[in-house]
Amino acid sequence: MFNRFVIANPDRCLGCYTCMAACVVNHAKQGLQAYPRLHVTYTPVGTMPVQCHHCEDAPCALVCPVKAIEVKEQMVKLNEGLCIGCKMCALACPFGAITIQGTPPPSVQAEPARTLTALLAWFAGQKTIGIKCDLCDFDEQGPQCVRVCPTKALQLVEGGDVERWSRLKRAGAVTGAVAMFKEAEG
Amino acid sequence: MLSCSEKGRTERVLTVCPYCGTGCGLYLVVEDGHIAGVEPDSLHPVNEGELCVKGYFGYQHVEDPRRLTAPLVKKDGRFTPVSWDEALNFVAGRLTRIRQESGPDAFVLFASARATNEENYVAQKFARAVMGTNNVDHCARL
Amino acid sequence: MTNSIPEISQHTDVIFIIGSNTAECHPLVARHVIKAKERGAKLIVADPRLTEMANKADIWLRVPAGYNISLINGLLHVIVKEKLYNSDFVQNYTEGFDDLEKAVERYTPAYVEGLTGIPQQDLVEAARLFARAKNAAILYCMGVTQFSYGTGTVVSLSNLAVITGNLGRPGTGVNPLRGQNNVQGACDMGCLPNLLPGYLAVTDEGYRARFEKEWHVKLPSKPGLRIPEVADAILGGRVRAAYVFGENPVMSDPDSDHLRHAFEHLDLLVVQDIFLTETARLAHVVLPAACWGEKEGTFTNTERRVQRVRKAVNPPGEARDDWWIFSALAQKMDYGRMNYLHPQEIWDEVRRLVPEKFGGITHSRLEKVRGINWPCPAEDHPGTPILYQGGKFATPSGKANLRPVFFDPVRIPEEVGEFKNALAGKITELPDEEYPFTLTTGRRGYHYHTGTMTRKSWPITQVTPEQLIEINPRDARKLGIEDGDFVRLSTRRGSIAAKAWVTERVPEKTVFTTFHFWEANVNELTVNSTDPAACIPEFKVAAAKVEKITPAEFQAILQEKKKKYLVDLEAEVAGRLKSGRREAHV
What is the complex's ipTM, to 2 decimals? Predict the structure, then answer.
């Protein structure tokens, strides 16, 4: 079975950042780093959030010197407790899907985030480590980005989906080839 | 206060998003008298069970510790908490005097596109009926 | 809006979005546009910026900031020349077509291309697409209105809808997307200097009499001051007291330093708000208001849908509903007709006074439905999601008025005088050698206006903590600016500093930023010239210059702004209020 991953359809993405904020909130609730694990990226050809593809032969896991990143349970998992913030994974990732976070941007006054209960309190800058998508594997509702997207631009792709789409594309390719030869003959 | 949640209870209060003019329906999830989250209204014809980033996550200002909790009057350049009675007497006295000295049109009211219909109605009624001026406007033209 | 939002995904075949960053500023309206597209509808977008709607458009018309009227007249020209207009509709339901036809004569695709750089073919295709649609809807926002000729631009959009017969049917219409949750309601309730609740003119004796009878008082007949006129009225000594509730004009008004300066000259500034906003910090008296989520009442959205808002939690400390505060103050000033106990009583008074619009919208009906669109004159009336059905318009003749509109960037065109009823405009401040950029302003999806609320919601600030100034990559290269460098943006009125976002979203020689952050509030830079009819300021065009600065220079500017906006005062007062309450509890 392939690893699972979340991907966005740029035809539907509004660039509204709802996915990113939902990501932050869901991870903060778990006591994980309160940073987004997907990044809305504007380009002249289209806009969508970019996040981890949970590669089968994940380069980030290969370069991690402390085995904080492992491929298991159909995903690429980063253990925030083990990570030493060496940044190798971020350099190796072909999608730019891993960020190194923990300190606030220079123009912003550092202050503790306000949370409703003391249990959830966290301070920016406490620990600088790699941040990447974990498919919200702690949450029975699944990835929050998928759930909150107002245009349903995001979806969770599971192993079978890729094969199904490939079958559809192959079928399309046959139709195309048939048409091409017909035209060439005619 | 029927819709207010009591200790130990979770309630969902149907209301409308306070941000843009789209007017999406949402539920405030109230736990122990505090807002714990927001859920979209799936029966609303406009947002049909979806919300944007402000609708989902823009509610935390409500219980922010910096909320104003008492009337303030600047005394010797410093904001000083006072009772409602003192604050309202102060404002009423000053407004009455300015109206006597300079006429009703020396007063302007900036109303609010953020407040309810009822509050805006009362605000313009205050300007027109109490102060006697049509100097009431709000940011619709901005 | 003349129509309702769900019609877009259900009925519209061609959507024309102009001057609206719908994806970011009204995402749940944009969702209906995406749904319509997936059904096969076509999308035309006119915007100087490559917004997400422009990115998804079938035809994107990259109109330079300020040139909307040229573009719309160009569309009208093609539609008239190619006889694509709805001649039955024009004949039966409109007046003024001949003048309009004459007025758009010179706006040929070639002429419009010369003015705006929009390729002729794109303009022609857009005109044909729009005119041939079964149901075409126009969506617009502040990118149409915030000019010193904003009224003219709206009128030209109305011309476009009218001659193609796109009014009064599902999925059509001229649809302004209103910016605030209840900006429609505040207008409906008469928070305008020339209109009583229900859009009844203060100058009309009959209308005044209606309110005088209920309110037991003689009402003034002279229209009052409009917000952009207030600063000069204060400095001229005509206004001595201002009462601001739920608004932050020191951040949101154009050329905001001028207004701040004026406010400092007031004998009395009362601010009623939920936080010690930038404006409240200047006040003599600050009154703590209850917030959304803490009070009952109704909001009216951009579709004229009146909806119930409900109380979920109690207000903190001594904070009170805005209506309670005004009522209490009225009683202190010996006015006895404002003793309310519940917002429902107030709403019933509105229904009594303006039955033709709100009479049928009762609180008990609103308990059962997701809002009712006014006008709704009776309790058995379903409400009116679509205005002007059957070609009946709210004009003296009952017909839609077509009015010629002219525009020239430099000077008002002379032919305006040849037409009665014509509107015209020019840009107040064009780029020049010293200020070579066009500065245009707006919002981002994730923050709201002056940031009073969204900047206190940590998930939002965590994702998007700071101001960004959008600049085109070519301009950035020329100025040696890289993405993320600090830049200073200046106009004749002031300067701000923030990080550069080097992006194709803005065209060359145009920069864009927002008014969400006191650290770099673009309204210190905007022009305060206004539209003669609507008095809306020209937020969308100013001449500006951009310079790269060092992080140290940025820090110095940040400290200046911090002092100017009295930023530390908010936390200080909040701390004092908190310790005061703790002492009181002990």
Answer: 0.95
